[in-house]
Every structure is written in structure tokens, then in C-alpha cells.
Design brief:
three-stranded antiparallel sheet, Arc Repressor Mutant, subunit A, 6 strands, 7% strand, single chain, 59% helix
Length: 472
């Protein structure tokens, strides 16, 4: 179906007229009424339009929209707010934004909104809403719904699959939107001419609206590495379990969406495989976003450093100009100096005053003071400080040390659980936490799977995890 087989042909004409701003405000008033009332009475809507747009409506110009066949406002009612409000509703009716129906057993008129009108008005309003939209936990929602469906094995498994598929598609859209927004903010750096503008663009807009809303949750609360492996595992089991897929197929046929079981089965398998493929490739998307984010941050810092170090005064600009001239050949220098001489006269001016008189410099006699005493460090104390410094260096928690810690725990085993890992002190506990964060990385030699519950060991309480050595 083509778009305008579904939408009226002149639906968007009000958005290109002289009165587009008033029409938009009227649509927002209509949206507010739609949110508050089940039935929108025309008389009530007229009153709300007058109350919200009283002065603006008097500024409307109907000259372009008024023809002999379509007289919107005549000369006698042009300054009447009620007449203009009726005119706005007639315009909405003509363009297809609203419909009008009569109440049962009455001649009172009610306003109804087609489904496409509600969607478009909400979309237009979303561009003016300054409220920061909360990030939906798409990853956890997908994991939660398919985990519950897999455990319950009830009649809602097909609904769970549809919800998981929709959340996954929305997650990809969020990531792509985030990637493009980073690029937009990167390009806007070229328009900033002060350090304050760069800081405002980074912290007030980019950080609050982009990074904190999407990027930060994906790295912490809605962590992709945390839930990716369980999601792939559950959906892979669904693909391998013929009986379970038959149950989902029966539920899908009850929806009346498919004509044949073969069509339903193919769509179910396709949705499951699409979710698995997206989560298998999502690390590449996150890596690209990390790269874009790092490039933007680096460019912001470099431009701020340039502005802070560059001399933007008249003196600095003259120095830059003369330096540039000095780099050219002699013939070109002469031409530039002639142009400068024609455009501005530069000369040195001095005047004689009392400060110009010669004043003999006074000499101060330097007194030989007692030199400062050099304090010596006792040998034992110096050796002790050096030992502490070397010990601190050895205890740095590098990636190599984390990998060696897990290797020492696994030894010749391919799989090890949290309960098998010794935690004698805080240092071992910190290494275990770092190992859990670096699990499933490309450079790590193991994969990590979070199990249910927690393990208490030597006063430490940690999640029950399973470390599995990667197959080369």
C-alpha cells in the first residue's frame, strides 16, 4: 500500500501555510483534549481553542487559503475568535485531521480523530517536548520475557517472542540513533568559537541527552554482556526443541495472522534467528559507538586546548598575520605589505613625562645567610619506603594480572564455578570482580555465564558465575 492510499492527499497542507504555527498549536490543544476526554465535544474544543490561542488567532491570515468555493472567514467575522476557531476546525476537517459525528438522538457535534492523526500529532508534539525521555531496558526486557516464557511454558510464548523481537529491533534503532547523534555533535564542534560553547554542547546536551540516556544504561544497568549469553542460549534451545516450537506455532495460528502453518513456522524461526544474529553482532555496534564517542571527546578536548592556548587578542592576531606573511616569498611579502600600508597606518608614538627620566637602580647588599641544613634519610626508613613503592607497583590490577588470576584458578580445568575460586583477601575479591567484567571480551581466554543466586565465601558475597575456557 502506498502512503497516500492511506493518508488524505492534502493532509500536510496546513503545515506549509502562512498559519502553520497556529495550526500546530491548535493540534496540540486537540491532543490535550484527546488525552483528557473520552468524547470530544465540538463546543468544548472551541472553548479550549479560544482560551489557549485567543491573541494568536487574531493574527491569522486566510488570504491564501480562501477561495470563492471555500470561504473560511468573511469580512464581518474576521476579528471574532469564535468564528476563527470554527474556521480552524473546518480546515482540519477538509484536510483529514479530524472527523465530525453527531451524538445519538441529538444534533450536538463530536470530534473524532483517525488513528493516523493521533500518531502524527503525538509525533509532532514529541519534537517540542523538552522532557528527557527515559531509556527503555530493551535488553533486560527481552531476557525477562523469554526467560519467563521458557520456564512457564504457557499459552503466552508466542506473545513473548513478539515482545522480544520488538524490543530487539528497538534496541538496534536506539544504537543507530545514538551513533548518528554522536556524528551530529561531532560536526557541530566546527561551529563553536568559545570554550564555553564547547562545554555547554558536551555536558548540557551531548552528555545529558545522548550518553546518559542510552550509552550509560547499556554499559551498566541494561548491560549487553550481562544478558546477551542467556538470551542466545534460551532462543537456541527454542530452535532445537521441535515440541516447543509446535506449541508456539499453535498459539500463532490462534492469532489469525497467518494463512498456513508453514507460513507461521517460517516467521517464528525467522524472528528467533534474527534476535540471535543481532545479539551475536551487537558487540561490533557497541565497538563502533565507543570509537565514535572517543573521537568526539578527543576532538572536544583538542579544540578546547587550542582555544585556551591561542591568543585571541588583537596582539595575537597581528602576530599570526605577520608570521603568515613571513612564510611567503619576497615578492608576495612586498605586495601584502603594500596592501597593509594602504589600509592602515601603523606608527610608534611616545611622549616625554616624569616617568621617562632616568632613575638610578638601587643596589641591595646581599647578606650571606646560613645555608639550609640538608636532611638525611635514615637507611632503614629509605629502604622501607622503596619496598612499599615496589610492592604497590606489583599490586596494580592490570589486564594481564586478571587473566593470570583466572588461569591460576582453572589450572587444567576447562570450566570453573565461583565456589571453586579461593577468596583469601580483598585483593583476590577485586581480581574476581574485574574478571567478571572482562568476561566475553574478544581478548579474554574465557567466557562467563551468570547463574542464579549468590555464593558466600570467606565473608565475601558474589554472584554465582561459571567460567568456561574458550575453544581455539
Amino acid at each position: 500500500m502506498k502512503l497516500f492510499d492511506y493518508l488524505p492527499q492534502n493532509l500536510f497542507s496546513i503545515l506549509s501555510s502562512k498559519n502553520k504555527e497556529i495550526y500546530i498549536e491548535s493540534l496540540f490543544v486537540l491532543r490535550k483534549t484527546f488525552k483528557q476526554e473520552m468524547v470530544i465535544k465540538k463546543a468544548d474544543l472551541i472553548s479550549m481553542l479560544i482560551a489557549n490561542l485567543d491573541e494568536k488567532m487574531l493574527e491569522m491570515d486566510f488570504s491564501e487559503e480562501q477561495t470563492e468555493e471555500n470561504i473560511l472567514v468573511d469580512e464581518n467575522t474576521g476579528n471574532n475568535p469564535s468564528a476563527i476557531a470554527h474556521c480552524i476546525l473546518r480546515r482540519f476537517k477538509e484536510t483529514g485531521w479530524i472527523d465530525i459525528e453527531y451524538q445519538i438522538e441529538s444534533f450536538d457535534e463530536n470530534i473524532t480523530l483517525p488513528d493516523y492523526s493521533v500518531k502524527l500529532i503525538n509525533l509532532l508534539y514529541s519534537f517540542t517536548d523538552s522532557t528527557t525521555r527515559e531509556y527503555n531496558s530493551y535488553v533486560y526486557s527481552t531476557y525477562s520475557v523469554i526467560k519467563t516464557a521458557s520456564q512457564e511454558r504457557d499459552k503466552f510464548m508466542f506473545n513473548a517472542l513478539l515482545t522480544a523481537h520488538e524490543n530487539t529491533i528497538n534496541l538496534v534503532d536506539e544504537l543507530k540513533t545514538l551513533h548518528n547523534n554522536i556524528r551530529r555533535y561531532h560536526q557541530e564542534l566546527n561551529e563553536y568559537i568559545t570554550v564555553n560553547e564547547i562545554l555547554k554542547g558536551h555536558f548540557d546536551e551531548y552528555k545529558n541527552l545522548i550518553m546518559d540516556r542510552v550509552y550509560h544504561p547499556l554499559k551498566t544497568l541494561d548491560s549487553v554482556p550481562r544478558f546477551k549469553t542467556p538470551i542466545i542460549k534460551i532462543l537456541s534451545e527454542w530452535l532445537d526443541n521441535q515440541a516447543l516450537r509446535e506449541e508456539i506455532l499453535e498459539q500463532a495460528m490462534l492469532r489469525g495472522k497467518y494463512n498456513t502453518k508453514e507460513e507461521a513456522s517460517e516467521d517464528i524461526i525467522q524472528k528467533i534467528q534474527e534476535i540471535i544474529e543481532i545479539y551475536e553482532a551487537i558487540d561490533n555496534m557497541l565497538t563502533e559507538i565507543d570509537r565514535k564517542n572517543s573521537a568526539y571527546t578527543r576532538a572536544s578536548i583538542e579544540k578546547m586546548r587550542y582555544f585556551l592556548n591561542a591568543d585571541r587578542s588583537i596582539k595575537g592576531k597581528l602576530v599570526e598575520l605577520l608570521t603568515t606573511i613571513a612564510k611567503n616569498d619576497r615578492k608576495h611579502i612586498t605586495h601584502l605589505l603594500d596592501l597593509m600600508e594602504e589600509s592602515v597606518n601603523i606608527f610608534k608614538q611616545e611622549s616625554l613625562d616624569e616617568k621617562s627620566l632616568y632613575i638610578r637602580a638601587s643596589r641591595n647588599n646581599k647578606n650571606e645567610a646560613r645555608p639550609m641544613e640538608i636532611r638525611t634519610i635514615e637507611d632503614n626508613g629509605g629502604e622501607h619506603a622503596l619496598d612499599e613503592f615496589i610492592d604497590k607497583i606489583k599490586k596494580s590490577y592490570s589486564n594481564k594480572r586478571v587473566m593470570e588470576f583466572i588461569k591460576s584458578c582453572m589450572l587444567n580445568k576447562n570450566v570453573i564455578a565461583t565456589g571453586d575460586i579461593p577468596l583469601p583477601d580483598d585483593e583476590a575479591f577485586i581480581l574476581l570482580v574485574l574478571a567478571s567484567l572482562r568476561g566475553n571480551d574478544k581478548n579474554s581466554f574465557y567466557n562467563i555465564e551468570f547463574l542464579e543466586g549468590y555464593v558466600s565465601k570467606n565473608s565475601y558475597r558474589v554472584p554465582d558465575m561459571k567460567f568456561t575456557r574458550k575453544v581455539k
